[in-house]
Amino acid sequence: MSEISRKSVIHVISSLCLRHGACVTVCPVDCIVPGPESDERWGKQYYIDPYSCIGCGECVIVCPTSAIFPEDALPKEHQEDADRNVEFFEEGPGYWNNDIESTEE
Ligand code: SF4
Ligand code: SF4
Questions:
Q1: Domain 11-96 bears CATH identifier 3.20.20.80
Q2: Bigger pLDDT: 3 or 23?
Q3: Nearest ligand 2 atom to alpha carbon 70
Q4: Considering only CA atoms, which of 93, 10, 2, 99 is closest in space to residue 59?
Protein backbone atom coordinates (compact mmCIF):
# COMPACT_ATOMS: atom_id res chain seq x y z
CA MET A 1 0.00 0.00 0.00
CA SER A 2 1.16 3.50 -0.73
CA GLU A 3 2.59 5.46 2.16
CA ILE A 4 0.15 8.18 1.25
CA SER A 5 -3.13 7.56 3.05
CA ARG A 6 -6.10 7.66 0.67
CA LYS A 7 -9.27 5.83 -0.36
CA SER A 8 -8.62 5.70 -4.11
CA VAL A 9 -5.70 4.49 -6.19
CA ILE A 10 -3.49 7.35 -7.26
CA HIS A 11 -2.30 7.46 -10.82
CA VAL A 12 1.25 7.83 -12.04
CA ILE A 13 2.63 9.37 -15.22
CA SER A 14 5.46 7.26 -16.56
CA SER A 15 8.42 8.13 -18.71
CA LEU A 16 6.27 7.21 -21.74
CA CYS A 17 4.79 10.71 -21.50
CA LEU A 18 5.51 12.85 -24.54
CA ARG A 19 4.03 16.10 -23.17
CA HIS A 20 0.89 16.21 -25.29
CA GLY A 21 -1.09 17.76 -22.47
CA ALA A 22 -4.42 16.03 -23.07
CA CYS A 23 -4.51 14.69 -19.52
CA VAL A 24 -4.45 18.17 -18.03
CA THR A 25 -7.65 19.16 -19.78
CA VAL A 26 -9.70 16.32 -18.26
CA CYS A 27 -8.38 16.12 -14.71
CA PRO A 28 -11.22 17.22 -12.41
CA VAL A 29 -8.90 18.29 -9.61
CA ASP A 30 -6.17 20.01 -11.67
CA CYS A 31 -3.42 17.87 -10.22
CA ILE A 32 -1.39 17.26 -13.40
CA VAL A 33 1.54 19.57 -13.99
CA PRO A 34 4.11 19.74 -16.81
CA GLY A 35 7.74 19.74 -15.84
CA PRO A 36 9.36 23.02 -16.90
CA GLU A 37 10.37 22.26 -20.46
CA SER A 38 13.85 23.76 -20.16
CA ASP A 39 14.61 21.81 -16.99
CA GLU A 40 16.92 18.90 -17.80
CA ARG A 41 15.86 16.86 -14.80
CA TRP A 42 12.10 17.41 -14.89
CA GLY A 43 11.29 18.72 -18.35
CA LYS A 44 10.66 15.55 -20.31
CA GLN A 45 7.18 14.77 -19.01
CA TYR A 46 4.12 15.73 -16.98
CA TYR A 47 3.52 14.66 -13.37
CA ILE A 48 0.54 13.79 -11.18
CA ASP A 49 0.34 15.22 -7.68
CA PRO A 50 -0.14 12.09 -5.56
CA TYR A 51 -1.59 14.12 -2.71
CA SER A 52 -4.47 15.43 -4.84
CA CYS A 53 -5.24 12.71 -7.40
CA ILE A 54 -8.65 11.12 -6.71
CA GLY A 55 -8.02 8.13 -8.96
CA CYS A 56 -10.85 8.81 -11.40
CA GLY A 57 -8.93 7.47 -14.40
CA GLU A 58 -10.04 10.19 -16.83
CA CYS A 59 -6.45 10.99 -17.72
CA VAL A 60 -5.74 7.38 -18.69
CA ILE A 61 -8.50 7.42 -21.28
CA VAL A 62 -7.18 10.43 -23.18
CA CYS A 63 -3.44 9.79 -23.07
CA PRO A 64 -2.26 9.02 -26.60
CA THR A 65 0.87 7.21 -25.45
CA SER A 66 -0.72 5.13 -22.67
CA ALA A 67 1.74 6.71 -20.28
CA ILE A 68 -0.54 6.83 -17.23
CA PHE A 69 -1.12 3.93 -14.88
CA PRO A 70 -2.94 3.31 -11.60
CA GLU A 71 -0.19 2.99 -9.02
CA ASP A 72 -1.17 -0.59 -8.24
CA ALA A 73 -0.92 -1.60 -11.92
CA LEU A 74 2.34 0.11 -12.75
CA PRO A 75 4.51 -2.15 -14.93
CA LYS A 76 7.76 -3.25 -13.32
CA GLU A 77 9.85 -1.24 -15.75
CA HIS A 78 8.07 1.94 -14.63
CA GLN A 79 8.10 1.39 -10.87
CA GLU A 80 10.59 4.19 -10.30
CA ASP A 81 8.29 6.60 -12.10
CA ALA A 82 5.96 6.51 -9.07
CA ASP A 83 8.73 7.92 -6.88
CA ARG A 84 9.54 10.45 -9.54
CA ASN A 85 5.98 11.81 -9.52
CA VAL A 86 6.16 12.19 -5.73
CA GLU A 87 9.61 13.80 -5.89
CA PHE A 88 8.42 16.32 -8.45
CA PHE A 89 5.97 17.72 -5.90
CA GLU A 90 8.06 17.22 -2.76
CA GLU A 91 11.51 18.29 -3.98
CA GLY A 92 11.07 19.46 -7.55
CA PRO A 93 9.19 22.34 -9.16
CA GLY A 94 5.74 21.12 -8.02
CA TYR A 95 3.12 23.62 -9.17
CA TRP A 96 5.91 26.13 -10.03
CA ASN A 97 4.93 28.84 -12.52
CA ASN A 98 2.39 26.59 -14.15
CA ASP A 99 -0.11 28.55 -12.08
CA ILE A 100 1.41 31.83 -13.14
CA GLU A 101 1.32 30.87 -16.81
CA SER A 102 -2.31 29.82 -16.63
CA THR A 103 -3.35 33.13 -15.07
CA GLU A 104 -1.28 35.35 -17.33
CA GLU A 105 -3.30 37.72 -19.50
S1 SF4 B 1 -1.80 12.90 -22.09
FE2 SF4 B 1 -0.17 11.36 -21.80
S3 SF4 B 1 1.50 12.03 -23.16
FE4 SF4 B 1 0.10 13.75 -22.90
S5 SF4 B 1 0.96 14.96 -21.22
FE6 SF4 B 1 -0.55 13.56 -20.35
S7 SF4 B 1 0.64 11.76 -19.74
FE8 SF4 B 1 1.91 12.92 -21.16
S1 SF4 C 1 -6.77 9.82 -12.11
FE2 SF4 C 1 -8.24 11.56 -12.24
S3 SF4 C 1 -7.67 12.87 -10.53
FE4 SF4 C 1 -5.94 11.50 -10.87
S5 SF4 C 1 -4.61 12.61 -12.26
FE6 SF4 C 1 -5.95 11.34 -13.54
S7 SF4 C 1 -7.65 12.69 -14.07
FE8 SF4 C 1 -6.60 13.65 -12.34
A1: no
A2: 23
A3: 1
A4: 10
From atom 2 of ligand 2, which residue's Cα is the shortest distance away? 56
Ligand 1 centroid from CA 11, angstroms: 12
pTM here is 0.89
What is the pLDDT at residue 8?
72
> Ligand 2 centroid to 64 CA: how many Å?
15
What are the tens digits of pLDDT across the range 20-67? 999 999 999 999 999 999 999 999 999 999 999 999 999 999 999 999
Cβ–Cβ under 8 Å, residues 4 and 12 = no
Q: Which residues line ligand 2 (CB under 6 A)?
A: 11, 26-29, 31-32, 48, 53-59
**Boundaries of every domain in the chain:** 11-96
